[in-house]
Structures are given as C-alpha cells and as structure tokens.
Amino acid sequence: MKTVTRLDISPKSYSMCLRNAVEVFTRELINCLFDANYSKENLPKSQEKFYIILDRLRVENKDFYWLDFKNSFKEIRSKLDLDALAALNSDPAAKSLEEIYLAYPGFYAIIVYRLSHQLLQQEIPVLPRMMSEFAHSITGTDIHPGAKIGESFFIDHATGIVIGETTIIKNNVTIFQGVTLGGIQVKKSLASTKRHPTIESGVIIYANATILGGDVIIGENSVIGANVCVTESISENSVVTVESENNIFQKKIKR
Hints:
Blueprint (H helix, E strand, L loop, with lengths): L17 H17 L1 H21 L5 H10 L1 H18 L6 H7 L1 H17 L5 H13 L1 E3 L4 E2 L4 E2 L5 E3 L4 E2 L4 E2 L4 E3 L15 E2 L4 E2 L4 E3 L4 E2 L4 E2 L4 E2 L8 E2 L15
Helix pairs in contact: 1-2, 1-7, 4-6, 6-7
C-alpha cells in the first residue's frame, strides 16, 4: 500500500479586515465625488485610507497611484452625469436627477464600476475587485471592473445583473434586472481570451436575458427580450424574443 505523506504547511494569514476598510474608503470616495463641500474636508482622509489599503496590499509608489486616480475624478464624474441623465430620460418612474443620484441602486453600481475600472487600468491589484464586490453586496449588481462600458449606461432595477470581465458595452445601452453577460465556458485556460459578449450602441436588454460568449455581438439598436438566451451574434436593428405560448389555466374552486 502506497503511503501518502502530508506536508505540514501553515495556513497563510490574510488581512480580512481590509474588506471593511475598502467599504469605508469607497463610500467616502463616492461622497467626495458628488459633494464639493464634503470633498474639501474629507478627500485628504480618503487619500490616507487609500495609502493604508495599498500598504496592506504591499503596493509601492502610493503617491503616483493616488495622483493618477485623483486626476481621473473629473472625467469619471462627467461620465456618471451622463449615466444619470440616461436613467432620467429612460425611466418613466424617475422624477428628478436627485432621485437617480440618491436612490437608484443601478446608478450606485455604475459609480463603483467607473472608479474600480480606473484603478484596474492603473494596474493596482485586488482593490478594484474588492470595490466591485462591495457594490455587488449592496446593489445585487456584479460588474467586473475589467469590463469596458461606454457613455450613458442605464441599469434599471439592478438586482441579479452579472457583467463579465471581458464584456464590451458601447454607448446608450439599457439593461434590466437579472441580465447576464457571461462566458459560454468556464475554463482557466481561457483567462486571457475574450469570453464575454460585445453590446453595440443603442441596445436594450430586458429582464432575465442571458447573452453568452466572447464572439457574440449584439448589433446596434437591437432589443433583446425578457428571458431570451443568446449564444450567437444578432444583427443591428433586430428584436429578439422567446417564441412560446403562455397558456393560463384558470379553475374556480368550489366552496
């Protein structure tokens, strides 16, 4: 009988409390992004938190990373203002821009995405994913910071949305709750390939639709209906729906 020897390897220690620190940092950063008075007083505190997080992640050149990140705020805010305007113009339930900024979970998820995407572009490890998972936990929307998302993006209702790492979403796209933009296969060997779909400008994707595959392109101004599963490219100006009868059987109960 063959003897199996177990190596005595001590478990590595991880700073799990960093999750709480990232949550606080993200909340404060969002406040600074939208409130000039708050920013004046608290942005230096956010900078200190950023440095502490990078220290714990063993990232050097903190000043360099912060300066690049801070210089991106104006452009990020401009994109977010377009996202909020897209929500106001698209959603009949929206009464004001203030309501979008303060009450829409989809918009909150987009805020965190645009901040975390910038940090990922700066090649800062782990932190972008921690920020996106914080947004996921409070909005139900899972946007990988590696996704490329254009201007005037609107997420309605938010809950249950998944947008994969190599997804490309162009301008003026609207998606509803339960939408998945995912990969058709889950293999580690595909890590460096485009695994998720491309959504061209002007597309609307309704609730619980699933679009899978890195070669899949949804053409401009198309509409993907609710509960549709798409694994092939769709030409522009198309309407895709599920063809099935919805038979409802009703029977009165005798009392």
